Amino acid sequence: MKFEFRFPDIGEGIHEGSIMKWLVEEGDNIEEGESIVEIETDKVTTEIPSPRTGKVLELKFEEGDTVNVGDVFIIIDTIGDSLEEDTINEELEGKAEVIEEETAGVVGEVIASSEEIPASTEGQITVSEKSIKKKVLATPVARQMAKDLGVDITKVKGTGPNGRVMKEDIRKAKEEMAKVSVETKELSIETKKEIPMEGNIERIPLTRIRKTIAEQMSKSRFTIPHTTAMDEIDISQLVEFRNKHKEKLLDEDIKLTYLPFIIKAVVKVLKEYPEFNSSFDEENQELILKYFYHIGVATDTDRGLMVPVIRDADRKSVVDIAREIEDLSTRAKDNEIQIHELKGSTFSVTNYGSIGGLYGIPIINYPDSAILGIGRIVKKPIVKDDEIVIAHVLPLSLSYDHRIIDGASGARFLNLLSQLLSDPEILLLKS
After folding, report:
1. d(CA 199, CA 377)
2. From the candidates 226, 294, 340, 402, which is the catalytic residue?
3. CATH code (residue 145)
4. Could you give the C-alpha distances from 417 to 54, 273, 311, 359, 398, in angstroms and in order?
5. Is 402 a catalytic residue?
6. 134-156, pLDDT tens digit by residue?
7. Are 129 and 281 a contacting pair, CB within 8 Å?
8. Domain holding 231: CATH number?
């Protein structure tokens, strides 16, 4: 019989995707579980497997088209199947196996999703926007007026008794919305005028993942007031320690870089200054401190920046962290990383030094409160014990949310990080 396969709900807030490549053609015989299409969502790229064995009768969309959850996107002839189509489709929703996007290196804003990256739910109480309902004081007339005008009454500041939302408040909110809309349109028109339309130019449509990165960067930059503290750390002893032990781990297939030491030191500092391992609940004006340590590692891939997360880094040794970084990187390059491995960071690091950068101003991975930028280690003269010596110097840039973290705290964070990284034995003893 004819089976209409609907684009399944694969979870994680994904409602639509773009068809990157059909892996089958009309007339092909396919087996249950065989991949039939490669789809790019705003989070990952995934292959969707066939839920039935049969013959492809029709492909309902072309490559490049957008398909929504619930849309029929392929019709399969499943001769001998006696189930009703609607029943089959209901059973299939949400059962597609997901194979994820890439990750592997460095640089810039840390992003994996068009939605806020939530805190881990492992043994913790988390706060989500959906679970928080704001109680609004308003009369039924005012509520109906807000509904008719398309105004979100929960975002209107009431001027009446006890903060009650009045009709005049709603009118002003509507006028402000109209003003913002006009200004946005004018800015858009003005911006378009500035784009050169003559000469040798090329227009490249953004991929879904690149659009997500752009949206998340804007959300972070314009929501969080960033400030950045910078410092240089003498890590000559760490360089010596790492060089001494890295060869011993090669037999175990472990690549010992400086990043595992930095992550281990960061976790120690986060325990001393928990505000850097937090989120700011704007609606309730509360600081949410997180006593679990999931460190995101900003990673440069061919498709865009991704953030694999090292979960519970405080419970892992330097060697364990090194092994996990290598594993995540390898599976990311092979397009085998899972979506949950790209979510839930509480603090992030971005290593632009691996491609030669010294300093940067990294953008915070919203809704986290801070991110550490790591520059390239350089040999340079410094004054030590009143003598000029050649040292290995590590440049660092710490961006943090200035609404909840003061400049003095940023300096203390880098000072303690410097102490730990300048003496690896103390770092390992205290970890």
Report:
1. 42
2. 402
3. 4.10.320.10
4. 60, 11, 20, 17, 11
5. yes
6. 567 877 777 878 887 888 888 88
7. no
8. 3.30.559.10
